[in-house]
Hints:
Layout: E1 2-3, E2 9-10, H1 27-35, E3 43-46, E4 50-54, H2 58-81, E5 93-100, H3 101-107, E6 116-119, E7 124-130, H4 138-160, H5 172-183, H6 200-214, H7 220-227, H8 235-241, H9 247-263, H10 265-275, H11 286-297, H12 305-313, E8 323-333, E9 336-344, H13 347-359, E10 365-372, H14 375-387
Parallel strand pairs: 4-5, 5-7
Antiparallel strand pairs: 1-2, 3-4, 6-7, 8-9, 8-10
Helix pairs in contact: 2-4, 4-5, 5-9, 6-9, 7-13, 9-10, 9-12, 10-11
Amino acid sequence: MVILPDGSVGWPNALIYTDEPFTPFSVGEAQARLAGGAYRHFRSYTTDHYLIVSQGSPGFARQSGELLESLYLGLRNSFQALGFEAPESEFPLIAVIYRTESDFRENHAVAPEIQAVYDQVTNRIYFFEHRDCTVEDTRFAARRRPQTVAHEGAHQILANLGIQPRFADWPVWLIEGLAEYCSASLSPTGEWEGVGLVNSSHLSTLADLEDSLAIQGRSPRMTRSRIGPIARSSTVDHLTQAKELSETDYALSWGLVHYLANHHADDFVRYLRILGQHRPFVTYPQDEALEDFRSIFGEISARLDEPMRKHLGGLKQRESLAYFAVIFEQTIEPGVVRRGTMVSQSPLVIRQWLECMASAFSEPYEWRVQSFATRSAAIGATESWLKHN
């Protein structure tokens, strides 16, 4: 394998000897190369460190470029302040934006719930501007889109700053939790505001997870899909032993990283430094990963759940989130109507609930959402709807 001048990885079929030094592309050189290839019909936009090639609107491309550039500068400064070298990226950072979800999925075979991806082989992030269809309210999607861009951008930036070397085998909870910790602090208008600030959406999701643990008997289908094995073991045991994460596990991983970074900062930095020495393509056995975690965090690793919950429970929302009252209605057969309601501040939990409800039967369904300032008002609206329907 070889590293190419644009930062991607290639597999040569022959060796050619040269006296010329390896020279990475500049942003301009990468732009010229992409413009003559597969992305010749895309428009190009540049920042100091990013090259954005886009099929979408100029406004979305520029907004994404500004978000990614601010994320790069913020993360580099933050990790240097923690004592990491974090040198400038050797290669131009490239983001590819497709116009629609269909365009994205035609070129990237990823799971249906994945809306963006960082590809370690090409060293690029890929995402899209417009969803084809969704059970997600447009207000939820508007908040989720920049968050998705920032999350994949964090993966790309951490790799190119040398914090998490490309192709190094890390525990999945740390990969995703660290990316969320670095990227999740977005303003309501989609601007990045800093490393490690409180993520209101994640707090809302975690609050709903706590509620679901208390009421498992009421909705076994949702309990299984939302919290997986957490009910059977501790949160920390579940995360540190997980080989893959559910969507709500991302919020839990963010919570664990947020707790460790705030209450065991020196140990957490030491942990990142140790994992940062991992060589590419060397397997990191799960039992070894768990032993390393326990050796770094000592006795606390066996009893992290309660202090983590206490830490997260003491955090305050950085913004005032609405309570969403969701109603669902589906005609199963003539004269038989299936109805359901829920109240949540978490768009993720609402979306998963809707997907669960919709997947039980194949018949068409309708759903509506209304926002309220208080939980009691939202609950009152759902109860009133059920009473009159």
